[in-house]
């Protein structure tokens, strides 16, 4: 029976083969450290082989997935036989790369060369980095363990490295440590302040409680003797708040590397160093202790996240299956087109009427967006129009004179009032017609808010998509022309035909401001000139001077009543007649504005929206499906966009990958 770690290795293989490592959040150990932290030496000590590229600057430029697989004698014999290799006791480890299947490496210097070669292929030769993984399997007689070696953190570009190399590395590291199922292996040097450690800062940012972070303290042999107690405090967890443990190790020195000191000899030297300097905690530290701890942590973590990971993969399988179903090739193309057109019509109607299944919580769509146009744009605009816009008293006086011709105007000059109102009511036309255009545009836009499944299908067939949109545009254009003509004619009827005796108009005067009411009443009463003859009970009629005064008053009153002009005023512009026509114009405009702002939205809904929905299904059928049949174009219009052919292939691969992963996960529940 395979170990838990080997099963997860299989999952990594499955996703890596198709380049989809980011599909699933697999449990894994992610190694994070600066370039000079001794990260490579730690990994080589765990593996027991010197195999990683070395040098100045960034050496690890691609995520390197290292799978340590503990082989059995049977596995080893099978490998040797399949490659016609004689059984040799000196072969205790061998390696293979996922990108070179069945090509085994027994010389680990060759492994190093292959890593460098593959890195250059993936990341180029200019010291840049790549997100593409290199997956290395190391078959060993030690233990099962898997970890991901990431590029070392750096701040300063070297040589031909990009100026933003530090940002690129940070982004790459974050893409791994951000995953909830990743264990962070933070490499820290003993001879620097841990509070300034880049790896610990990243770990603290992503995992503030330290529940999935383990720290490795390197270079214990390089610290001053006077700081041993500080280092002991560090190793005992008194300075770094991580929950999975802190383990100190001694790396191979550059001298050891040059002299090709063996890993076993290095581990022996490390053990002696720890016993001498940290006798009471020496068994908890060192590379052997690190390997055991990492293995235990990874196994525990795999068991913990397995149920959730399985659910996520099942969900992924279902989602990919649904997406793939949408991209299936229809068997009966005629039925497919008929059904699609009916579904589009139904989905559009549901979206307009607010009956869609998936109600958006992020934006206003469908009929609600049309209602918003009417409420927030049209009514707001039309209510803001000044009834006396660009109309002065002088303008009114001029109209009064021009409509009187050679005769002086009567007091209420309906001809003048009609001309004034025709001019002012014209201001209601443009906003009303603009509202029609805005609604037309929004109704076209609503097509992009119908069921995503239908939109995806339309995008899949470019010609069909274009034809459907053409029918929408054509049908809306027909409605728009008719409704615009009707609205313009409707407002024009009020411009040309006044009805000042209408009770609603009289009511509008009553509801107007007190100032307007007083001016109209004052004008109607001819300034309320008082006839002194009514109160002359004291014999003043005998006084000829007083009699003459009364006579003059009456003549003046009659003159105003008959001519409509206030001769007492200095100018016509300030006369009572001008004020009267101004106030009547304002009240009549308000009266008509209420009618128009009530009529236009109703007309749009009735003749533009409802009428459109009633004939949409019929028009789609007549102008698309029937045309396709007559012209025998069904096969032609169902030619897929090339991108969808690629998408279907990709979905097939991803679905197959997830299915294989789920099959492999079955083994975990029995371990």
Automatic annotation (TrEMBL):
Residues 23-307 form the Dynamin-type G domain. Keywords: GTP-binding, Nucleotide-binding. The keyword Glycosyltransferase does not apply. GO terms for cellular component: cytoplasm; membrane; microtubule. GO terms for molecular function: GTP binding; GTPase activity; microtubule binding. The keyword Nucleotide-binding applies. Pfam families: Dynamin_M, Dynamin_N, GED. Belongs to the TRAFAC class dynamin-like GTPase superfamily. Dynamin/Fzo/YdjA family. PANTHER family: DYNAMIN, DYNAMIN RELATED PROTEIN 1, ISOFORM A. This is Dynamin-type G domain-containing protein. It comes from Macrosiphum euphorbiae.
